[in-house]
Each structure stands twice: as structure tokens, then as C-alpha cells.
């Protein structure tokens, strides 16, 4: 039994070796991808339910790899986060998204808020505020047209998170809590944090048409958000039935395939025009 135990340990460390070797290779590939400009942003519209118009777009990263084609963020963001590369990638995302939003404004599109996802590492970078301010100055985008999406996992260290959020509010950008309902969410922190938007996680939205349990959860999140004076946005809206339910419960905004999939920036003017003319 002892021998087998030892073999298991060896086998295990060999697996770890292989794993970290694979990670190192991917890390190198990610670094090169950034240098070579292989990342692209797609944008998904967000619609105001009552006014029936597009108020913003969320930027979502993809990796355009010559061999593999388009790679989804779930496949590389976790490793980028682990290795710290997310800081450089995230800065690229912020700059690209702000530049793009400026371009749309200059084209004469109705002004939209651009949402950018922040990773945990990025959020706790000491120069986060300076970096964002510099990008706003560089691109000329008014801060009110940039929204940062953060997750509940960043609130574990409540005091520093609160401080960072207040600094972000001070430069005038908007804040959304993403994937709301998935993590540790105490009413206390929600009340304290200066956030503008709550995004209901798509796992709750997915089942509102068939389980009354999720209907209750979604209705409760909307009501709670409104009590705290926050706008509530539902993500992953795919059907008319889901939209009708959300409308009935006074959800402010929706995002999802029912409105549009994330698209290449070149299509946005056309998509916005079509959606606003409905
Ligand atoms: P997320 O921020 O929760 O983004 C929403 C995800 O849901 C996106 O997946 C979007 O394409 C997808 N989605 C939108 N509408 C629907 C719908 O109606 N039905 C379904 N089934 N899915 C829908 P995507 O683009 O693959 O992104 C996955 C995750 O990767 C994001 O989840 C976000 O956590 C992360 N991510 C994406 N871009 C960035 C980025 O620039 N930086 C960081 N740190 N993370 C990013
Ligand atoms: Ca998001
Ligand atoms: Ca989300
Ligand atoms: Ca998510």
C-alpha cells in the first residue's frame, strides 16, 4: 500500500508538471496574442424595456487565433487571471472599448454607455484609477459613457472594495454588479456600495418561464434593486415570454439573444438603427 501511495504521488506530480507546462505554453501564446493583436471585442446591445431603445453595449473579448479560429473568453480568461496577464489584456480591452464608443459617437449614433468587464486582479491593481483616467483622457470619452462590471467575488474584501468603488465613482464612471445572485451577496454590502446597476445572472433568467421558484427570485432581485435605487438589468434574455415576465416585474433593461447576440463593432450602427426603429 505504501508503494502504491508513493506511485500515486509521483503520478500526481507528473500530472501537475504537465499541467503547468501546458499553462506556461498557453501563457506564452496569450502574451504573443496580445502583441500580435489577435484579441477582438464583440459588443452586445442592452435595451431599456420601457423606452424600447438601446442604452448601451457590453464589450466581450474573443481571441482570434490563426489555427483555432475564434476562442471564447471562458477558455483563456481564467488562465490570464491566474498568470496576471489579465492586467495587460484588461487595459487593452478598456482602451479599445472607449475608443470604439468615441468612434460611434463621432459617427452620430445616439450616445451609449459601454460596459467593460473587470477581473479581480485588475480591480485590485494599485494604479487602476490612474489607468482608467488616463484612457478617458486619451480617448476623449466622457466618464458617464463608461460602465465597469464587477462581480460579487471582489466584495470579499469589503473595505478595500468599497474604497476603490468610491474612487471610481469620483472620476464619474458607472458601476454594475455582474452575475448578481451567484455569489455571496449580503444586503449590507449592496446598501453600502456605490453601484448603479445590478445585472441578474442569466441562470435565473433562463428558467423564469418554467419554474416559479426562479420567477420569485428574479422578482425579488428587481424589487430589492429598486429599493436600493439601482437600475436592474436582466441578462441572457432569449424569449418573448422572459421579456414579458421581466416587463411585468418592472425590470429596467434587458440583454440577450432576444435583442441581439454579441456582434462585430462594424455591425453595431446597423443593429442599433434596426432596434431603435422597431
Ligand atoms: P459575462 O460578463 O456574464 O457575459 C455574458 C455572457 O453571456 C457572454 O458570454 C455572452 O455572449 C453570453 N450571452 C449573452 N446573451 C446571451 C443569451 O441570451 N443566452 C446565452 N446563453 N448566453 C448569452 P461570453 O462572451 O462567452 O463571455 C463569457 C464571460 O467571459 C463573461 O461573462 C465574462 O465573465 C468573461 N469576459 C468576457 N470578456 C471579458 C473581458 O474583456 N474581461 C474580463 N475580465 N472578462 C471577460
Ligand atoms: Ca459582464
Ligand atoms: Ca454576467
Ligand atoms: Ca458570467
Automatic annotation (TrEMBL):
Domain EAL: start-end pairs: 23-276
Shown chain mapped onto the complete sequence: 601 to 878 of 887
Protein name: EAL domain-containing protein
Lineage top rank: taxon: Bacteria
